[in-house]
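Running this now, will post back.
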Amino acid sequence: MGIKKYRPLTPTLRYKTVSDFSELTADSPHKPLTKGKKNLAGRGFKNRISVRRKGGGHKRRYREIDFGRNNFCVLGKVVSIEYDPNRSANIALVSYLNGDKRYIIAPNGLQVGDKLRSSTDAEIKPGNTLPLRNIPLGSNIHNIEIHKLKGGQLVRAAGTSAVLSAKEDDYCHVKLPSGEIRKINSDCLATIGEVGNKDHINITIGKAGRSRWLNKRPKVRGVAMNPVDHPMGGGEGKSSGGRHPVSPTGQPTKGFKTRKKSKYSDIYIVKRRK
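Update: finished.
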């Protein structure tokens, strides 16, 4: 999709850009595949804030996405390409020959009328899903499973793709968008192609109100707070905190590594992202 700019009739429009939504073919979602979504405003089960700077935002309905692609060996046809307010990627409504309808993440280049299939011998084309062992080396893939039959968990954001770089015994080496090379079981499923809506990363918010529509609240610096609110707060005049930068809970930040020294998944990482 392209990016739409505005004439700067007001200061807020000077840098604001939006997607032109030229790829979309439907204005409203397929209602049986939607459900209500409660806005928790960053609060946990005790109603305490666990994620700061969340709240407000537009009311949304959640689209139930088929990340597992477990309608095996059944031919499906793309009915529409739709907008999803809950993710950066667009979604596609697929109607299968058995009467089932499901939403999938729309890969780049997918069009209405395209035929899709999920099987071990599916054609290598965008939107088809196969086990990693049946995908040729060097292929771009997305919606990758980590655990067999759990559903795709990796590479689902707009414009992203991973590369199948090697096969070794029962594992495949997959280079992720971060640069990390990871071993994944060869029986795990992945979808061919890269995720669509590549221009999402180039969109400029342009004004504060638009962030509020997206459930994002303002960010306040820790050094501007009082000592009761943040470890770096307080001090006479403009103070830089008097200590190395930390989070509100006292965890060192700005380069401090928080990953566990020994984690169960370390054995699957061939090369770190840095």
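The mean pLDDT is 92. More later if anyone needs it.
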